Amino acid sequence: DIFISASADWMDALEVAGGLREGTRRDILGNALVLIAHGDEAEPVRLDADLDLVGLLDGGRLSMGLVDAVPAGIYGREALTSFGLWEDVAPHVAQSDSARAALAFVALGEAPLGIVYASDAVVEDGVSVIATFPEGSHTPITLPAAITAQSEHPRAQDFLDFLSSDIAAPIWREYGFSVPD
């Protein structure tokens, strides 16, 4: 009945295809992109053009979502490119079919570092956020929501309104999301 997307582009495609109930689309959440490390007490790093990301990997892989298909991977490649780090680190990237899979590889110690959403890092034991990519290093991460065109549920609008309400906002924030003003 309600579609929430991690990609505004995907929501745009659904809207163009007539898959959304007209007038119900809204941006309900924002997110941040973070660099995570395996372990609970990893040292923070400074994200800039001088970061030796390949050196930090120490022979391991940087875990990311698919950089051509998974929104977190797309944002991650964009952010690394903005710092001039992508070309050097690209051969050391292990791509996964989701941000949660990329997170799991780091949590399990299969990769020393990863790039995921802040909301994913908040709920996973065994990882530390060692840096947050600054605004401007990638396209802003917004999560649009809308009622689907085929929905006939009488409470769909009420639920969508709740998801973007002042009551829901502290819950979203607790789980690492930002809430638009």
What percent of residues are in strands? Answer: 15-25%
Distance between the termini: 25 Å
Q: Output the number of helix runs.
A: 8
Which geometry do the CA atoms define? elongated
**Low-confidence region ranges:** none
- The H/E string reads EHEEHEHHEHEHEEHH
**How many strands, what sense, and barrel or not for the largest sheet?**
5 strands, mixed
Structural class: alpha/beta
Query: Helicity, in percent?
Result: 25-40%
Strand order of the largest sheet: 5-4-6-3-7
Q: What is the average of the pLDDT values?
A: 96
**Beta strand count:** 8
**Radius of gyration of CA atoms, rounded to a whole number:** 17 Å
Word description of this protein:
The protein starts with a strand and ends in a 7-residue tail after the last helix. It has eight helices and eight strands, in the order E-H-E-E-H-E-H-H-E-H-E-H-E-E-H-H. Strands 5-4-6-3-7 form a five-stranded mixed beta sheet, with helices on both faces. A three-stranded antiparallel beta sheet has the order 1-8-2, with helices on one face. The protein has 181 residues and is of the alpha/beta class. It is elongated and about 55 Å long.
Show the helix and strand layout:
Blueprint: E1 2-4, H1 8-16, E2 26-31, E3 33-38, H2 53-57, E4 62-65, H3 71-82, H4 86-89, E5 93-96, H5 99-107, E6 113-117, H6 118-122, E7 127-132, E8 141-147, H7 156-163, H8 169-174
Parallel strand pairs: 4-5, 4-6
Antiparallel strand pairs: 1-8, 2-8, 3-6, 3-7
